[in-house]
Amino acid sequence: MPTIDEKRVYTNTVGTETVYLGSELGVLGVTVSDAVVGEFGLAYRGAVRDIATAGPYVAAATDDGVLLADHRRRREDAGDEANMDELQFYNIGDGIDSASAVGFETTTQKKVALIAGEISGDIYRLTMSPDDIFGSQPEMLSTWNFIDTCSTVYEIDMPLIATAEGVFQVTSDAPSGTVISYAGLDTAHDIDAEPVAATTDGLYVLANGWIKIPSIEQAESVDIMRSSDRLVRAHAVCGGSLYACNVSNTAGLVPDMGAHWKSVNLPVTEPIMAVTHSHTTTYAVTTDGTLAACVDITTETAETTKKKPAHRREAEWQHRSLGVTGVSAIAVSHNNW
User: Fold this and answer.
1) Per residue in 273-318, pLDDT tens?
2) Which of 9, 189, 285, 289 has a beta carbon 3.0–4.6 Å from 38's, enabling a disulfide?
3) Cα–Cα distance between 148 and 171 in angstroms, integer?
């Protein structure tokens, strides 16, 4: 059986991307190329409830607060070859004891702003300069600014927050500063800024009010990716099964929604717990740490597709057991940012 310390297949990062899993053991970094799993290992040890990525940054919600890493940087004592366990996570602010969710609001070369939620339901915001964290002489920890309290926070995809009492919206430019307001629904397990919400009752799309997607019940995870040519790739986890919405434009997420969402056959038997996308690939993961990946053929050029073997012209799922348990979150980042 593979272990979380295994290194395999390749170490060249050209044309690869990194998938991060939050688990009861810590943050697992997985290097993937063309849906094939390469090197993987623990980048942080300690229970993790949520993972978020933006540009080169990786944020983790933990019992010790919110941690941040820059995957372009390694530990000072790292050797010539960059391994996952050489990624350095930093505690980025005082004021949060036990974080349940984290999301990026803004990322630039000079400023990073995050929104985080505690298990208690308190919502916080933090703005900082990356140099204050990753510089040669890091400054003192900043203080998280309290926004408001709702209920247990499950997921954040700015400007929306999924909580035990429904969906809330963050407004950062309000006259009174950053505020949150109730945006509808009951318990929301996951949220995509599209906006699409995964709730105990199923999937809901916000159009003229929240509209329930027919024939889909008990949704746990949802993720939407728009490509530059306005193609929409949408997947959701419902009752442990993966569903895909195959539409060619943004309007397809609302009209005839039930007809567009179809169950996906995966080469894994364990229930899926979460799904996410990169610009080219869809990733699904189980609680027991099996990662499944599939390159989206709609993102490839016709010339590229012709050069591939015939059996790779159709979408083909690859999978790999990573030897980590208690997976709670998944996010993907690009090595060539």
Assistant:
1) 999 999 889 999 999 999 999 998 665 444 444 444 433 344 689 9
2) 9
3) 12
- pLDDT, tens digit (0-9, with 9 covering 90-100), for 140-172: 667 899 999 998 999 999 999 999 999 999 997
Phi, psi of 169 (to 5 degrees): -115, 140
- Distance, CA of 26 to CA of 326 (rounded, Å): 10
How high does pLDDT run on average in the chain? 82
Judge whether 284 and 262 are in contact, CB under 8 Å: no
- The token pair at 161 is 């927050």
pLDDT band at 4 (very low <50, low <70, confident <90, very high): very low
- Residue 187 Ramachandran class (φ > 0 left, ψ -120 to 50 alpha, else beta): beta
The most confident of 71-75, 124-128, 173-177, by mean pLDDT: 124-128
Beta strand pairing status for 26-33 and 36-45? antiparallel
Residue 30: HSE in the Cβ half-sphere, 13 Å Cα cutoff: 31
Instruction: Answer yes or no: pTM beyond 0.90.
Output: no
Type and span of the H or E element at 132: helix 130-134
CA dist 123 and 145 (Å) reads 9
CA dihedral 2, 71, 119, 272 (to 10 degrees): -40
Q: Which residues pair with 22 in a beta bridge?
A: 27, 329
Tell me how far the alpha carbon of residue 228 is from its chain's centroid: 20
Q: Let me know: does 90 contact 67? Beta carbons within 8 Å.
A: yes
Comparing CA positions, the residue from 279, 276, 313 lying closest to residue 297 is 313
**270 pLDDT band (50/70/90 cuts)?**
very high
Q: DSSP labels for 2-42?
A: --TT---S----TT-EEEEEE-SSEEEEEEEETTEEEEEEE
Amino acid at 273: M
